[in-house]
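chain below, 388 aa
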Amino acid sequence: MATFMSPVNIIAGPGTLQSLPQEAQRLKVNKAMIYADPGVVQAGLVEQVTDVLQQAGLEFEIYSNIVPEPPIDVADQAVNALRESDVDFVIGIGGGSSLDIAKTAATLYGNPGSVKDYLNLTGTKTIQHKGLPRILIPTTSGTGAEVTDIAVFSLEKTKDVITHPLMMADTALVDAELTYKLPAKITAATGVDALTHAVEAFISMQATPLTDTLALEAMRLISNNIRQAVWQGKNNPEARQKMAWGSLIAGLSFYNAGVSGVHALAYPLGGLFKIPHGESNAVLLPYVFDYVWPSCLDKMVRMAEAFEVYEPGVSPRQNALNAVQALYDLVQDVGIPTSLKDFGIQEKDLQLLSEEAIQQKRLLARSPKPYTVDDILAIYQQAYVGRS
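prediction:
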C-alpha cells in the first residue's frame, strides 16, 4: 500500500505571490504573523509580501528573531510570540529555517509545552491539534520545507526534528521570482540540498512509483540547471524557474519516501560544527552514494540516465559509478568544498561524528544498505580525505 501526502494547495510559478489574498480569503483569516529571518527582511522580500497584504486590506505583524539552523530556544521564543499575539494565521517566508519556525509556531499555538517536548528522539508529547492556518513561501530553491511536515532544530551535538501530519502547510506558494537575487553560495547549497532530497528519496526503502517519478524529474531539472542558476543568477530566470520546480517536486518526493544516509551523517556536522545544512549534505553526498550504490544498482543506472552520464553498452556497475561521479562533479562545479578538511574538521572528530550519526535510526532505516558505526566512520574518513 502506498500513500501520498502534500499541502492542501500548491500554487507555483513566477508571480504567484499575488495569489496570497485569495488564499487568505479561502482560509477565512485576516491578520498574519509573518516569520522571516533578518536577511529576508533586508532583501526586501518581506516587503513584497506586506505590500500584497496591505493592498488587500489584511493586517500583519512581523517576527524576525530567526537564525539559520535554529536551536530550541529560538524556536520557543517564536512560539511564545505567536501565543501572545492576536493574529489568526501564519505566513512563513524564507529558507528552511524560517519555514520550519513558522509551521512549528503555527502548530504549537494549539498544543501545550515547549518545542523540546515534541522532538522525534527525546520528546514525550504528541501533537493533537493543528493550531493556526499557515501559508509557506520559500525564497530558495532547496529545502522543500514548504511541502513537508518536518521542522529541523539544532541540538548541542546533532539535530532533531518535529514531524507530524498536522504540521503541513495549508498553502505552499512557490514563486520563482523571489529567488532571482539569491547569492551564488546560497543558491549552490540549497540547490544541492534539493538534489539530495531527490536522490535519497529515489533509493529509499519507502519509495513508490509516484515518488520515483517525481524524484527522477527533480534530478533532471536540478542537474541541468543548477550550474546556470549559481553562476548566472538573476541573468538566467529560466534556470531559476526550473530550479524552483525541481526543488518543489523533490520536496514532495522526499516527504513521502524519506531521506536516509546523507541526512543522517549531515546532522552531526550541523550540530557539532554549525556547518549549514545544504553544505553538510553536499560534502557527504558523493561519498554516501559511493557506499550505497551496490544495494540499488538498477536505480543508480536510472540516475545515470537522469544526469545524462549513462553509457550504452557498459555494465550497470559502470553506469552506477558514473552517477556517483556526476554527484561529485556537480558539487565541485557549484563551488562547494568536497572534503571535510575544507570545513575545518579534524580527523580526531570523525569517531564522535560517527557515534552521533548512528543515532539517526529513523533516517538510516530507509537506506537500501544497512549502516554500522564502522561503516559510517569509513564514509566520514573518505569524505575527510576527499577525491582526486
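The CA atoms of residues 4 and 91 lie 24 Å apart. The first strand starts at residue 9 and ends at 12.
thats it, cya
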